[in-house]
Amino acid sequence: MERSEDQGRRRRRQLRDARLYVCVTARRERGDLRDFLHTAYEGGVDIIQLRDKTLEAAAEIEAIQVLAEVAREHGKLFAVNDRADVALLTGADVFHVGQGDLTTRQARTVLGPDVVLGRSCHSPAQVDAALADPGLDYFCTGPVWETPTKPGRAAVGLELPRYAAEHAGTTPFFAIGGVDAARLPAVLGTGATRIVVVRAVTEARDVTAAARELRSALPA
């Protein structure tokens, strides 16, 4: 069995190499979660987060257990959003929080030092705070464009990932929000090298091909 500190090092090494991060619902209306996860990882997705606000805890845990199994099969990372208790129970590699969720200290109290921890940022001040927080492993900047997956959240435009690229140094960050293959060159033009996508992969007719197209356009 992998020791905890070795697990933490492996997860952070994989985070450094990660470029393509996908968020997905439990896909209950399609009933194809397991198949989707396999095809997404096969296309080159590095991290998959299950984010589904419609689920009760038991159903969320069940879906994340499927994600955990598939991620292990592919040797990739999987993420849990918001719920530290669910992250703990499912052995999540990555735990992601928003600005109004658990503090870094609170998350670490529940999950310990070996889980990769990320936070969403929507302004330069929040980026600065993330960079000053030694307990965070990465952050996201967005939404770059308005997106139905974040209703009511105003777009931040390309200036925020550009600011992050200028200030992040070696801290990984991901641009998120309305990113797809057509918009990816504009994102890369800011200096960002990592992206989070939802519909560009989850709604693709050929999931593996869509993921592969995005991954191949990102820096190695």
Automatic annotation (TrEMBL):
Pathway of action: Cofactor biosynthesis; thiamine diphosphate biosynthesis; thiamine phosphate from 4-amino-2-methyl-5-diphosphomethylpyrimidine and 4-methyl-5-(2-phosphoethyl)-thiazole: step 1/1
GO BP: thiamine biosynthetic process; thiamine diphosphate biosynthetic process
This enzyme's EC code(s): 2.5.1.3
Cellular compartments per GO CC: cytoplasm
Organism: Kocuria rhizophila (strain ATCC 9341 / DSM 348 / NBRC 103217 / DC2201)
Family as reported in the entry's similarity comment: Belongs to the thiamine-phosphate synthase family.
Reactions catalysed according to its record: 2-[(2R,5Z)-2-carboxy-4-methylthiazol-5(2H)-ylidene]ethyl phosphate + 4-amino-2-methyl-5-(diphosphooxymethyl)pyrimidine + 2 H(+) = thiamine phosphate + CO2 + diphosphate; 4-methyl-5-(2-phosphooxyethyl)-thiazole + 4-amino-2-methyl-5-(diphosphooxymethyl)pyrimidine + H(+) = thiamine phosphate + diphosphate; 2-(2-carboxy-4-methylthiazol-5-yl)ethyl phosphate + 4-amino-2-methyl-5-(diphosphooxymethyl)pyrimidine + 2 H(+) = thiamine phosphate + CO2 + diphosphate
Binding site for Mg(2+): D82, D101
Cofactor: Mg(2+)
Name assigned to this protein: Thiamine-phosphate synthase
Functional note: Condenses 4-methyl-5-(beta-hydroxyethyl)thiazole monophosphate (THZ-P) and 2-methyl-4-amino-5-hydroxymethyl pyrimidine pyrophosphate (HMP-PP) to form thiamine monophosphate (TMP).
Gene encoding the protein: thiE
Residues bound to 2-[(2R,5Z)-2-carboxy-4-methylthiazol-5(2H)-ylidene]ethyl phosphate: T147, P148, T149, G178
Record's cofactor remark: Binds 1 Mg(2+) ion per subunit.
InterPro entries named in the record: Aldolase_TIM, ThiamineP_synth_sf, ThiamineP_synth_TenI, TMP_synthase
